[in-house]
């Protein structure tokens, strides 16, 4: 397997659409291409799956050891792996680790820089020159110029890059139609974008026309040997019911794959279809998602409510993360200020009317109420706020990526627990 990490000097350079175009265009040429996302993003991998027609995986340079990163990359099982970076190439967690460049270094993969040269000419050379100066140990495969206004504009940038010996694999013209809609947690999900397939197909056409795909593919380097599997999160049960619909969409593929590899069975169910966990489930996982967009339907789903109550009564482990945690609470206030009844399994009232961004990695030390007993790595990304937390056990002691102490997180009662933190896996450092 050979790998290549798509990065940029900053967010907004066009990495995601370019990555989708590359995945589809390379695949259309007869290659078998796999995808991955650097960092904790849940949504981009779903677009990767649409473009590559194969599952994507998260490779988190802050939460995962190099061994774990390489093992997950190798598990993608394709001759070529395209990894989409997050933010800027050197942007990292508060402790300075976990950037796209760090992921590339762990994999032994080169960086492909996407340069948005709108408003630039010769200055396009600054980013690759800076990358080489700051991270000389990370190979630079080359660059793709994006949002090119004219042949003269392209020529100015190419001349400056040629003086550095930087390979230019292609130059993409400005294409206003290549746009994916977004909302408060990032891009709108592929299933909700009417023309998602058309955008991917159009991106692939532009990439195939303007990028030297043969040279780009040849620039990928062999993946460094994994040397093991890295630490994996044990399954919370043998038969795990997984909430999976438009309200609960943020389950990490690597966790589900790890649980299945340990012999656990994952049983999807759809709360928005008024379905609850099957009676044979000994664990229930409500992942993050958008309960605030579907609060009315969740409140009216009596079959879901009864099945969840039955699971709790038989002592099944019930775990909710972020949106799943909100659903386990007593009530959720939506963006219009309307209060909707939730499952009432935890003494929590959350609000999307009173919004505040909470974002960052978390080092988590479980208390007795947590389904897992080892130190964990996780992250928070939500706008919902807490209006009420009643008397219940806490789930985690927490610090941020820089080691600053945070208030204890989550609530638990009997076999039901949850928090706003998304668990990525065991903390390996």
Descriptive notes:
The longest helix is centred in the middle third of the chain and has 15 residues, at 196-210. It contains twelve helices and 27 strands. It is elongated, with a radius of gyration of 22 Å. The chain is 28% helix and 29% strand. The strands form six sheets. Strands 1, 2, 3, 4, 5, 6, 7 and 10 form an eight-stranded mixed β-sheet that branches. It has a six-stranded mixed β-sheet with strand order 13-11-14-16-26-25. A five-stranded antiparallel β-sheet has the order 24-23-20-21-27, with no helix packed on it. It folds into two domains: 2-222, Rossmann fold, CATH 3.40.50.300; 239-426, Class I glutamine amidotransferase (GATase) domain (Rossmann fold). The protein has helices at 15-28, 44-52, 66-74, 100-107, 126-134, 151-164, 196-210, 213-219, 253-261, 295-300, 302-313, 323-328; strands at residues 2-7, 33-38, 56-59, 80-84, 111-116, 140-148, 168-173, 182-183, 186-187, 221-222, 239-243, 248-250, 265-269, 283-286, 288-289, 317-321, 331-333, 339-341, 348-351, 358-366, 376-382, 385-389, 396-400, 405-409, 411-413, 416-419, 422-426. 51% of the residues are buried. Helix 1 (15-28) packs parallel to helix 2 and helix 1 (15-28) crosses helix 7. It is an alpha/beta fold and 429 residues long.
